[in-house]
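Lecture 7 notes: from sequence to structure.

We start with a single chain of 844 residues. Read the sequence below before looking at the structure.
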Amino acid sequence: MDKSWMSMNRLSREYEDGVESFIQFALQSAKDSSKILCPCVKCGNIYTKDVFVVRAHLCSYGIDLTYQTWVFHGEKSIPSNQVNKKDNTLGGIPHEDKEDPIDMVRDAYETYQDNPNQFMKLLEDAEKPLYPGHKKFTKLSAIVKLYNLKAKYGWSDVSFNDLLDLLREMLPDGNELPTSLYYAKKSLGTLGMSYEKFHACPNDCILYRNMWENYDQCPTCGLSRWKKIGKGDKLNVGVPAKVLWYFPPIPRFLRMFRNKEIAKELTWHADKRRDDGYLRHPADSPAWKLVDKEWPGFASETRSLRLALSADGINPHGQMSSSYSCWPVLIVTYNLPPWLCMKRKFMMLTLLISGPKQPGNDIDVYLSPLIDDLKKLWDIGIEAYDAYRKESFLLKAVLLWTINDFPAYGNLSGCTVHGYLACPICGEKTYSTMLEHSRKIVYTGHRRFLPVHHPYRRQKKAFDGRQEFGTTPVPLTGHEVHEKVQNINCEWGKKDKNKLNYDVGEPHRKRKAKRKSTAPKESQKDERKTCWKKKSIFFDLPYWERLHVRHVLDVMHIEKNVCESVIGTLLNISGKTKDGKAARLDLFKMGVRTELAPKEVGDRTYLPAACYTLSKEEKRHVCKSLHGMKVPIGYSSNVTSLVNMKDLKLVGMKSHDCHTLMQHLLPVAIRGVLPKHVRYTITRLCFFFNAICEKVIDVSKLDAIQRDIVTTLCLLEKQFPPSFFDIMIHLVVHLVQEVELCGPVWYRWMYPFERYMKILKGYVRNRNRPEGCIAECYIAEEAVEFCADYLSHVHTIGIRSSSLQTSQTKPLSSPENQMISETEWEQAHRYVLNNDLEIDPYIE
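Now the structure, written as tokens:
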């Protein structure tokens, strides 16, 4: 283009025509049709202005004469041999197809404008070559690519510092590589988002924000806001006793839409989702469609976000003996396609609650900043720019549900998860009883979920000695729950444990005995008339009480606990088995299966063999079967390492080990070692978990699956002792209903969140400041993820490339050719014809 007008008189006709031609050229590549960066002498391509303001600035102040290559307005950079060395341009560094650090810096600044000086420093690093004469890498792109490798492969800080020292020695003199990780993080931190720190009361009473922002002392418990020095009462003013780290989600949502590819995928649920009646995605579920029906204005904008929240405690020190617990709160976006929405790149850390104590029931105090932003995203919305459609729109968001393990479920929902009313679905209609000898509350009575005329309802001796005429409990709606918790007065903060209800002169031994005597008794059951302990802060969201499901049950932990109970009882593993002398005495007291009552033989107690009891030889058969199993690489951990052949038990099982055992391996291992009816019941339980964990759910089969699991639980009541039925066994009966309302399980279990918790634990380098380490590393990695979309050969962390996927697929062993007879070929052919669903329509 002709740029001679830039040096002409601003009052001349040629200059005015040149300004108009420049504006028209800039609008062709502008993301917003009404705003562009202003290149006048005063603004210097830092501030984005309206077109009429840019025109006025260029006529009033003049254009920056050093701006000869309009890289900020769509003009491509030119090779170094065509650039005047005096020009302050891109430095003559040719870029590959994906190398665009200038756009990367500009988009980062447009999303989060807070420091123009940092922007100019970043722009300088994006233009400066790695060393004099180098034409491939700039200083900024080199830092990004190196840190990308560090985050991808989990390098330690010390190893990364040593690598930087080595590379500086290998590169020519005058190179711009940072001297340490500290300076590399300073550069990357300006590309990422920031975080806020709110001071908190050590007893979790308040956050020092809003009306308490200037307080120095907690108005509830009286503790000081500041940290004590040593063991005395002297305060270190300025150093908070406890901190909440808040990562605002709104600017992060805005940046997602600034990326063209991500903005395109954020409407996958409306543009490319397969809608054939099957449950493949939360968008297929009634919970999603309820939002569409109740709030059509929200649903009319396909870019409105549907979110899920997960909170769990982690020990950042990685030591089981340490009681330190900090709580990350994560958010995932369901608008994305299935292969992206639960990946590490799109898991957003929003809150980090400092330890050493877990917040427990007081977690609502720390959730208040996030709830305020969620209310803003629902009531008002935020103006956002869609880089894919090149238009601005009003961004809104809705939180569909929370995903937590069962203790955290109670903390977030405000209901009890232990005691007589521990089931949050059955609520006050929970069927529970206290076992006198086992000293535990159990949850049986699953015959209530059977059809009214089912024969099991009239059987007495096979169950608990009584007939069952109860009906299936109906879960409370959100409106009903809100009415029940509306008037509950809950005081936040940990109570002073030193103020106990006992006399000062009472001996310590008696005080201890008095506290032990508060264990629940059968007579106390009627005193608890409600299972609600607080009004959850999520009810502050205007839509919360109208949702079908507000908090979902975590299938991962339920399956793990069920697996441990089954295997522990079958193999009689100490500490895991649900059978024993106390369990048999409870059976005898109930008048059920009295032949299994313990018998005294001399000085020993003999337990008669039950239908689920395995002999030593049968235990060896089961353990040997599991010990010899071979599975493909990546299918599970090494099953052999879980089997202890000496003690005939399974040890060290993780959640995924229980997942594979429960769904695939256990039915194979127990073949031929149990009575047929017991083996049949356990296999039915395994098939149930396999059915609900499928990635594609046939809605027409859910009713049959629900009937099968109710029958299976009733069969377990007939065969296993009552002590087997803890709350985790009971929750199995409610899983099908949540699948029907919320969609496939793998969008709602804790596996991806637990994996991400491990990544957060790996960020800790300074054990005195674990939360600070996590916050700083998260910000740096967030910047690397942002930069990966602009630079070549920088792969997104946590999302496999196609080359990695194919390279990690290996067979069990080397292939061998084997000839089969004609008879074997005919048998295999008939087997395929009889078992292939595609052939069924052609067979009469």
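Residues 555-747 form one domain. Keep this in mind for problem set 3.
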